[in-house]
Amino acid sequence: MATRTDLDGRPIKPITICMIGAGGFIGSHLCEKLMSETPHKVLALDVYNDKIKHLLEPDSLPWAGRIQFHRLNIKHDSRLEGLIKMADLTINLAAICTPADYNTRPLDTIYSNFIDALPVVKYCSENNKRLIHFSTCEVYGKTIGSFLPKDSPLRQDPAYYVLKEDTSPCIFGSIEKQRWSYACAKQLIERLIYAEGAENGLEFTIVRPFNWIGPRMDFIPGIDGPSEGVPRVLACFSNNLLRHEPLKLVDGGQSQRTFVYIKDAIEAVLLMIENPDRANGHIFNVGNPNNEVTVRQLAEMMTKVYAKVSGEPSLDSPTVDISSKEFYGEGYDDSDKRIPDMTIINKQLGWNPKTSLWDLLESTLTYQHRTYAEAIKKSIAKPTAS
Ligand SMILES: NC(=O)c1ccc[n+]([C@@H]2O[C@H](COP(=O)([O-])OP(=O)(O)OC[C@H]3O[C@@H](n4cnc5c(N)ncnc54)[C@H](O)[C@@H]3O)[C@@H](O)[C@H]2O)c1
Ligand SMILES: O=C(O)[C@H]1O[C@H](OP(=O)(O)OP(=O)(O)OC[C@H]2O[C@@H](n3ccc(=O)[nH]c3=O)[C@H](O)[C@@H]2O)[C@H](O)[C@@H](O)[C@@H]1O
């Protein structure tokens, strides 16, 4: 491998990374990137490894020896501190992060996102290890603009909706709206990490992902996850498309999101890993402000893209409305709009997302069709065959 240099032209030294939650969606892409493009070593910690199996076996892979899987639950495993000590940098991705859980399993959500992350922060701080912690854009909650009258011209003013790391407030709903249990737990762990930095000198970076999507996100219910499970929107809509069912629009699909391609976002994380002087002490929005759609528009675009990549015609009525109470149950609430301000990440790391929503959906839905279409056909055919 040719000498790789950081953004300031200095050679990058190979490091060891303790990656917690490495077997998930983001972790699998980050491991792939680190193995194929860098000399760094990864201690990959998770309770599952299905999404990184292709990186672990066979032993003849070019990066054999640079990635080591440790099956452990950070809730109760005494190996955690030792593994953090063995590494130069810890990246914590472990969390419950599907909205269907926030209002139905609020205790698990709060424990996972706050309590279970505490020892990780503590061990990093006590052992003087750098930490990159994955938070969320949900810490912003609702926009200020959402509280203005519907017809107020101020709603068009970016000052009322663009989300800035250092100035935007965090606006959550009332306590009975348990949807905010996740955002609130993430906010508190951010504050704790920030305080460890201020009082004890912890070297940290906090990442706030804005709807990163791509292959291997979540699961397809009944195929590689529970039949009754409710994954995030990309997998919900993929599942509907694969099964030729209408896509369900929660409360009319009026909420807005910006989607960024996982491969673009992983470039940003690699810059953080390899440029500690520029990343330490910062909180970074990582998203694509150019890819904004309502959930209804996302459904319409995914329907068109899927017809193109599968060669199968779309349904005459491709979407159906459903109330949030019916879909998620009591206590659900929603973020109205999520546009990331990109000033800080641009200034510190010179990062910009590249991939348009159409292109990222085309490559992702090609993957979904190739990976799941046959399995779905078989699962649908099963009851009549027996
Ligand atoms: N995907 C996104 O767009 C997005 C957006 C905002 C925030 N995030 C944050 O990024 C992180 C990773 O998200 P993801 O999309 O890859 O989710 P994911 O669910 O695919 O990955 C999380 C991984 O953590 C593991 N894990 C959870 N609890 C654990 C424990 N106690 N011990 C060991 N492993 C455990 C899970 O098994 C899973 O493999 C999360 O902290 C999430 O809140 C992701
Ligand atoms: O990805 C992120 O940046 C963050 O936001 C997500 O939250 P959210 O965007 O609300 O979750 P999705 O499941 O992706 O839902 C997006 C929107 O689609 C809607 N939706 C979802 C599924 C569905 O079948 N139909 C539908 O209309 C939801 O109500 C919501 O308005 C999750 O909280 C986290 O993974 C993460 O922290």
Automatic annotation (TrEMBL):
<dbReference type="InterPro" id="IPR001509">
    <property type="entry name" value="Epimerase_deHydtase"/>
</dbReference>
<dbReference type="InterPro" id="IPR036291">
    <property type="entry name" value="NAD(P)-bd_dom_sf"/>
</dbReference>
<feature type="domain" description="NAD-dependent epimerase/dehydratase">
    <location>
        <begin position="17"/>
        <end position="287"/>
    </location>
</feature>
<dbReference type="InterPro" id="IPR050177">
    <property type="entry name" value="Lipid_A_modif_metabolic_enz"/>
</dbReference>
<keyword id="KW-0520">NAD</keyword>
<dbReference type="Pfam" id="PF01370">
    <property type="entry name" value="Epimerase"/>
</dbReference>
<protein>
    <recommendedName>
        <fullName>NAD-dependent epimerase/dehydratase domain-containing protein</fullName>
    </recommendedName>
</protein>
<dbReference type="InterPro" id="IPR045869">
    <property type="entry name" value="Arna-like_SDR_e"/>
</dbReference>
